[in-house]
Fold this sequence. Notes:
The complex is a heterodimer. Chain A is an alpha/beta fold. Chain A has one domain (2-196): Rossmann fold (3-Layer(aba) Sandwich). Chain A is 36% helix and 23% strand. In chain A, helix 4 packs across helix 5 and helix 5 packs parallel to helix 6 (156-173). Helices cover 79% and strands 0% of the residues of chain B. Chain B is built from eleven helices and no strands. Chain B has helices spanning 5-30, 34-53, 58-76, 84-104, 113-117, 125-154, 156-161, 166-184, 193-205, 211-236, 240-264. In chain B, helix 1 runs parallel beside helix 6, helix 2 (34-53) packs antiparallel against helix 9 and helix 6 (125-154) runs antiparallel to helix 8. The mean pLDDT of chain B is 88. Chain A binds chain B through residues 50-52, 67, 69, 71, 80-84, 86-88, 90-92, 94-96, 118, 120, and chain B through 30, 147-148, 150-151, 154-155, 157-164, 205, 208-214.
Amino acid sequence: MIAIEHLGFSYALKKTHILKDLNLVINKGDYLSILGENGSGKSTLLKLLLKLLLPTEGQIINDFSKTAYVPQRFESLNVQFPITVYEVLNCYRKSLKIKDKAAITKCLAIVKMGDFANNLIGTLSGGQCQKIFIARALMGNPDLILLDEPSNGVDVTSQTEIYSLLKNINRNQQVTVISVEHNLKAAIHNSTLIYHLYQGAGHLCNPDEYINEYLADNKGGDPYAAL
Amino acid sequence: MLHYSFMQNAFMISLLIAVLCPIIGIFLVLKRYSMIGDTLAHASLAGVSVGLMLHTNPILSAFLLTSIFGVIIEFLRDNFKKYAELILVIILSLSVGIAITIISTGQAHANVDSFLFGSVLTVTRGDFYTVLGLSAVSLITISGLYHQLVFITFDEEGAKIAGLRSKVINYIFSILVAATISVTIRIVGILVMSSLIALPVATALQLNKGFKSTLLYAILFSLVDIIAGIVISYWINAAPGGVTALISVFCLVCTILIKRGSAFI
């Protein structure tokens, strides 16, 4: 479980609050998508959950034992970095002292990328790359996976595969998923909960409530038609 | 040529350097810290000057002072996140300032030219044992931290999130860079040392291989560069540092041309 209590955050040199008095409980087995416009505080909240930033107010209580992270990879990846898919996974495995050597082939098989073990990471497409980082996150059997815009720079077919994979891991293995999303359709179809951030404040609802509260007024008629 | 004891010492040291430099160099280049290597190489002149002034082993004094400068660079990285090159200017000013002050006032009781340009004539068996000790410690440390270093170099944020103590490992790595520079200054010299740290790696990168293969090719190129550098410098009576640097550049240019040529075939 993650309990976010009266969480606030502001950068030292700026007086404005990026996040204001957030309160949220994320239980084991939830699939939470964090939605909001640019500048609403989604990335800041993710960094706080990853302990890359410390709250300036309130606290985050996290009792998940193994947290894994899938970065928003494709844009920041150095495509000239000389490293194979196997080496990416192997340095992660060795650094985390995961003894099972077969973990690499198992995780590559889960994301259907077993044939790409010896390819250089820079030669992969956005979707293939994202699947490799999901495979990396799955090593060590995490109970919580955090993702930063997993469909960014990914073709439509790969998006479907990635979200199907995440949904499968969440529903069948009870791995909790928290995903910062720009992909509204994916958030509605895959999440069990949606956390909407607006100007630093948050509101929790389920996907149906989200459609009624945030989408119906804008689109008119059947809110599902737009999805 | 090899019946001279100074050449035997020079060759033995060169083999150690040829292995160590690209191992450190690949992490520096891929972290985009090549210029930190160059700055620390110049900073080692302060260590050499202090060693010569105090009549102590200049390689060890270079190691100590370069380690301190390396740790300062790593420490200042948090303060100058967006102006990393400014740190190098600060360290260069401080270290070269120390060196020039000591040398120009005649406090360094020996000729520093051999450290600037590299020399095989002045290499002693004592130097070899110092280099052997520092190289062995560096190689053992690198082999122990290899996978963590690859992870941090490829994805520093991911490594932090995964729980690696990346700050500590970066500090240890700074000291390893200092050790590598200290063992290299005798043969290659301060002025062109970064050629041996960065150029074999730059050449190996042209081959588009994985991390381990790139590293092995870099070591191979480094061996060719430094052995050819010493042999040719012996025959033409030149400082080995300059010749090694020229051969390194020549190897890189040839590799790029072959790669471009094969793309057209």
